[in-house]
TrEMBL record:
Alphabetical list of Gene3D superfamilies matching this protein: 1.10.287.130, 6.10.340.10, Histidine kinase-like ATPase, C-terminal domain (3.30.565.10)
Chief location category: membrane
Secretion signal span: none
Pfam families xref list: HATPase_c
GO cellular component: membrane
EC code(s) of this entry: 2.7.13.3
Listed name of the protein: histidine kinase
Upper lineage: Bacteria, Pseudomonadati, Pseudomonadota, Betaproteobacteria, Burkholderiales
Boundaries of every HAMP domain copy: 214-269
Keywords of this entry: Coiled coil, Kinase, Membrane, Phosphoprotein, Transferase, Transmembrane, Transmembrane helix
InterPro entries, alphabetized: HAMP_dom, HATPase_C_sf, HATPase_dom, His_kinase_dom, HisK_dim/P_dom, HisK_dim/P_sf, Sig_transdc_His_kin-like_C
Highest taxon of source: Bacteria
Coiled coil segments of this chain: 243-330
Amino acid sequence: MQALPAKIGMRSPNGEAPPAAPLLSGDSIAARLLRIIFCCYFLVTVVVTLVQLAAEYKHTKERVVLEIRAMQQTFGPGIADAMWRFNEDILRGILSGMSELPVVAGIKVADDHGKLVRAVGTVLEGGAKLHAGADGQLRPEPDSDALFAEVFSQDFPIVYNDENGQSRVIGTWTVYSNQRIIVKQVEYGFFLILVNSVIKTCALWFIFLFVVRRYLGQPLRQLSQFVGQLNIDNLGDRVFVLNDRGQHELHQLTNKLNEMVANIKASVAENEQLYRQLQVEQTATRQLNETLERRVAERTADLVTANKDLAQALDTLRIAQDELVNSEKLAALGSLVAGVAHELNTPIGNGLLAATVLVDKTRQFSSDYSSGLTRRTTEAYISDMSQITELVVRNIARSAELVTSFKQVAVDQTSSQRRRFLLASVVSENIKALLPTINKTAFNVEQSIPGDIDMDSYPGPIGQVLINLVNNAIVHGFEGRSRGTITIDAAPAEPGWLELRISDDGVGIAAEHIGRIYDPFFTTKLGAGSSGLGLNISHNIVTGLLGGKIRVVSQAGGGTTFILHLPLTAPYSTANSSGTL
C-alpha cells in the first residue's frame, strides 16, 4: 500500500521539527498579550495620576485661599490702626512680615479713594502685573509671562473702630498669591504620586512576565514539541499529557490533539483495509470485462435495429398523414398533423436520445476498461444499459401503437363562411342534427338561448365545437349511467362578449385528468372508439378562429360544465378570408 502524502505538523527537510519561537518574541501570543494589557494599564494609570494631581492641586489652592482669608482677623486690626494714625513704619513692618508668609506673593494697601498707599511683592494695578521694589515704587514684573505665574487675589476692607465704638471704612487691602506658590506646596505630593505609579507599573510588569512564562509559555512549548514530532509515519504509541497543573483551555486543546491523532490512526487502518478490498474487486472486475464487451456489442446491434424501426415507423406515419391530408379538409389538416407530430415526436425523440446516450456510455465504458474498471463503474453501466434498453423498447411500442391508432382516427370538421347570425338559431340547428344520435340514448338535451343574441362570427366552427362537447358528454360524462341531462344556455357578459355554457350532470372529470383534457390524443377510451382529438380541436377553434376562451368546471360525481367566453364579433383573420375553416 502506498503511503499517504499528508503530514501532521510542519517539519524541516531533514525531518526535524522547526525550532519554537521565543516566548516573548514580537509575534508571540505572550508578547502581544503583555503589550495589550500594559497599554491599557498605562492609559488607566496616566488618567488616574492626572486626576490625582488635579485633585491635589485643587485641594492645595482651596487651603491657600482659606489661609489668606484668615489673615483678615490676624493682620486687619493692625493695618487699620496704622492707616488711621498714618504710621507708615508700622504699616511697612506689618506688610513686610506678611510678605514672608509662604502663601503670599504680594500685598497692596489703598485708601478709601482707591489711591495706592503701600505695596509689597507682586500686585495687580490697572490689570497689569507689577512688582513693588524696596523703595515702594511699582515696576513691571520681569517674569510676567513665566509658567505658573497666574495671580489671584483676595480683597479686605480696612475698618477702624474709634473710642466711641463706631466703625469706619478707611480703605482696602489686598493679598495676592499665584500658581507657582500652589505648585511649590504640592510638588512633593506630585513626586510621591508619580513614584508610586512607576513602582506599581514595574512590579505588575514583572509579575505578569513571570505568570506568562510559567502558565502560558511552558505549556505552549510542550504542545509545540508534540505537534512538531507528528507525521503520518510517526503518530506515536502513547497519549500526550500536558505537564501543567489544573484544567484550563490548553488541557482541552491537548485532549483534542489526542483525539485527532487517534482518528488519523483509525483512518490509516481503514484505508489499508479498503485498499485490500479494492484489489480484490479489481480482480473480479477484470473477469467481468470479457462477458461485458460481448453484451455491449449485442445491445448496440439491437439499438441500431431499433433506430431503423423507428425511422421506418416515422416514414409510415408521414405517409398516413399525407393520406389524411388528401381525405380531410384544409382546416382539419392543421389540427391532426400538429397533434400526431407532437404525440409521436416524444417517444421517437426519447428513443433517439436513449440510443445516443447508450453510444456515449459505451464509448466511455470502453475508455474506462482500458484504464481499469471498478465494481461501481461496472454496476452503474449495467444498470444504465437495462434502463436505456427498456426505455427504447417502451417508446418503440408506443410509436407503433400511435401509428395503428392514427390510421383508425377520423375527425369530422366543417368549413363555414363568416356571416351575421342569431346564436339561438345556430344552436337549434346543430342540436337537430344530433337528434338521431341522441334519440338512441336515454339522455336529454335542453337549451336556453336568448333569441336576441346577434353575432358576426363563424357559425360552422361554433356548431362543430358544440357537437364535440355534446358527444363528449354522451360518451364520457354519462359512462355507466342510464339517464342524464345536457343543458345548453347563454347569457351576455361584458359589452361585446357572451358566455355559452354546455353542462351535464354526469360523472365529472377526475382531478388528475383536468390539466390534460385539451392535449391531443389524450382520452380515457383509447382503442374504444375515441380518438382523443375532440377537445383539442374545440380548444383550438375557440381560442384561435373565434378569438375567445374556454374553461371547464368539474368534480368527480358532480358533473361537468364547459364555459365558452366568445366575442360577439369574431376577429378577422387573413387565413380565413376565403371563407374556409
